[in-house]
Structures
1.
Amino acid sequence: MHYVERQVARWTQQYRASETERLEPMERLIEWLPKHIPEDEQTSIVHGDFRLDNTIFHPTEPRILAVLDWELSTLGHPLVDLAYYSLRFHLPVAEFRGLGGVDAMSYMIPGESESVAEYCRLRGIAPVAPRDWAYYSAFCMFRLAGILQGVLARALQGNASSETALQAGRRARPLAELGWKLVQQSFDV
């Protein structure tokens, strides 16, 4: 079983174990994702939670000094890490502190397509097929929705470690909706 296949199965299981209500977009993703895994099988060290929040920037130069929080690292598909990092381009500002709907270039931030193209150039690999990229992005939304469902379940049980857990957990539904919407926009479903 390959990395993405294992991840879809694992996060489906995690979601089911913490399910507090039926989320129709999650049900659709659970059905659709395992049947459409891209054939491209790359393997590298993956971080598992690669995002700006897990980096330390140089105080005066535009470069990263360290990447933190490696407990989810494993061998897997590197585009999953890149897609997780790139989720910010899809997530709305108000609800997720993302850049969805923001003209990133107006802030001198490379946009999603520029980031992905630069990643491929630096790795010396062919550009990512748009449908494969849409898959990895939808998968990351599904995975994060599964994580947030677990946060919600713990909050409802009174076991959450954060005072904002209930609020964070309630973001599972809109995130699953975003993931399914991306699938609908990118594939014939």
2.
Amino acid sequence: MPATLLVVGEVADGTLTRLSAEMATLAESLAEAAGGRAIGLVVDAEPAAAATELAGFMASVEAVTAPQTSGESWAPYALAEVERAVDAGVTHVFAGVTAEGRDLAGLIVGRLGWGLLANAEAVTWSGTGPMVEATVLGGKAITRSVFTGESGVITVRTGSVEAEAAASPGTIEARDAVGTPSLPAVRVLERVAEAGAEASLEDARSVVVGGRGIGGPEGFGLVEELAGLLGGVVGATRASVDAGWIAYARQIGQTGKIVKPALYLGLGVSGAMQHRVGMQAADAIVAVNKDPDAPIAEIADLFVVGDLFEVGPALAAELRARHGG
């Protein structure tokens, strides 16, 4: 049976996420290699805009209106649509390495008994199925894995491929969600708007990260200033988050977000393996640390040995001068 690949797109503030576009590009290339086809899926209270964006990268997209997702957890509704797609012949499902994507992948595995290949950094078609490449052991080793069965779920990291628009827009099938999900509803009781949360770490071209070396929550003032001057986003290490200096949503690493910006600037970041897993694919890595033996020096393109509270303000002054004030 020819492979049918389903990409589950995610919506942020009404628009398609960058990772969803990357997964669409990946799935289309795999479908071509497999002699099969790829389908996009957007499940949202208002899916039209994101589905139109996804159709710019895929030949076929389903836009499913699920009003309940505005006040309930998204994953059960996405799962219901995935189950419907599987009944129609879908063999593999692609979800993002995000909080929502991980939730959905876990539900699919539990409900369908499928295998899961997580944190894919590269995927190729190998004979009868996808081969997933991922780093493990804090980036010390690379694994290449395949499914033992004919179906499976793959979660994909940001930056695994470069999103490429299709030659012509794909078709969009708009419909309502399928009835009530088989799983209990999880209501959203409260939404808390975090400062800076409107800027996505995964989509940022520049990320400025504060580590243990910034000394406390007040140190993030410098991090935020530099991020603003660079047109970037604030990130953090696990140590900073665990200390309560900044919200978990800003954490980069194995238990946080995976980023691949054009520029990563680390201030007081030691570069523990757990953190490096989440940022080592950045195009350019710049780090400032007083310790010349800090592990991050091993992967930095530019490593500045110095006091971040001297180097940082000097960098900010230079950036302001270049911006004309």
3.
Amino acid sequence: MRAILLAAGLGTRLRPITNTIQKCLVEYDKRPLLDIWLYQLSIHGIGPFLVNTHYMPKQVEKYVKASDYTDKVTLSYEGKLLGTAGTLVSNMDFFQNNDGMLIHADNYCISDFSEFIQAHKDRPKECLMTMMTFKTDAPSSCGIVRLDDKGVVLDFFEKSDSTHGNIANGAVYILSGDFMEIIKSDFNNAFDFSVDILPYFMGRIYTYYNKVYHRDIGTVESYNLSKKYHKNTFKKQANRYEK
């Protein structure tokens, strides 16, 4: 399964760290975040990859060229940010009419991606995509979902100040070919995936709950918490899936 990793953002919430480094390259024991993503996805048989760039693109290009994944990664530079939906629309052909993954690569995530793919294959027939969810300790900074008893999204509250629970959208998706056909025909001008697309698919989004670890590293405090987890647990959790 192919995957688009969204990695072009400015990382404004993570300043001053991102004044000198692209957010997707912030380090965990000297290992870039993007490397952690590519490692995990690869050991689950996922790839090749498309990574979009904009802010500090030369840093990302340098990392990819020197990485173990250089032959698996296509870089797509955006002179002007296309938005999370715009990048998908512009690179739809990358998926070759098959199901594919769309990932916000500026989150720290450890998960069983093979189990995630199987959940997508077993999704209810009315669902066109599968969203990874996680339990957040900061609901107001996330997109919170309300689910039915089958795990299908009924409501989506994007960074709402109201209390709607703590099960959040992890911004890791598997999109079906049927879903992408609808996007091609009806959402060509969409910019933000969460705002311009997701609300139109309530009742047709299945979910997979990440039982391992997922954190939005949008702030320095949150980034430091994820680094603490990585130092203590990453090798144990991630390496268990390596074949």
